[in-house]
Amino acid sequence: MSRLKMTVNGVAIDIDVPESRYLSEVLREDLRLTGTKIGCAEAECGICTVLVDGIAVVSCVFPAFKAQGARVETIEGLSNNGRLHALQQAFLDHGAVQCGICTPGLIMTAKGLLDTKNAAGEAVTENDIRTALKDSYCRCTGYQSVINAVLQASGEEVAPYIPETGTPGTAVGKPRPNPNACPMPGYFQSTPRLRSASTACTQC
Ligand code: FES
Ligand code: FES
């Protein structure tokens, strides 16, 4: 056990933890800040991303003691007096969330980008966002919605992304008639003819 001191979302933390702890373990298990999610646990998916002194790090492999004396930011620190952060609101506006497992990591990665760009007085481009999020994986929503949400949070006006839905008026998923089906009403209309089946109609 060793003494770990840092600030998390502006709150001073001073706890004894094993030296082998990763930052995600300290956040989730010792501090009960479970907004930081775990996906791969091996630095591949970006889901566990938090900010350490403004830099996005994958907390599942980030030794907790590397955050000694640092300023850590997690998804729990973003809203202010019940008001969502611009990134959180933009993710809602653009439908950039489905299961939400990847969302804290995407938002914290995006926050790191926006904070860095704001501090430098630089505009954020779509290419900047794509580059920043290139190691963040989402399995259930569309990346364009995420990119549009980050653009909106950076101050751009962005129309919601509406995926192609095919030709209007065309039924989707309607089964085709089975060409081998029995023609007699009430008999195997959707299944192949069964000449030897006792329940088959007399025409089969
Ligand atoms: S859970 Fe940390 S990178 Fe996947
Ligand atoms: S919203 Fe489900 S993994 Fe991204």
What fraction, in percent, of the residue positions are helical?
Answer: 25-40%
What hetero molecules are in the model? FE2/S2 (inorganic) cluster
Radius of gyration: 26 Å
Gross morphology is: globular
Largest sheet: 5 strands, mixed
Query: From the 3D coordinates, which CATH architecture of the largest domain would you assign?
Result: Orthogonal Bundle
Question: In total, how many beta strands?
Answer: 5
What top-tier CATH class of the largest domain fits best? Mainly Alpha
Overview of the structural elements:
By secondary structure, this protein is α+β, with helices and mostly antiparallel strands. 25% of the residues lie in helices and 12% in strands. The chain has 5 helices and 5 strands, in the order ββαβββαααα. A 5-stranded mixed beta sheet has the order 2-1-5-3-4, with helices on both faces. It starts with a strand and ends in a 51-residue tail after the last helix. The structure holds FE2/S2 (inorganic) cluster (FES) (2 copies).
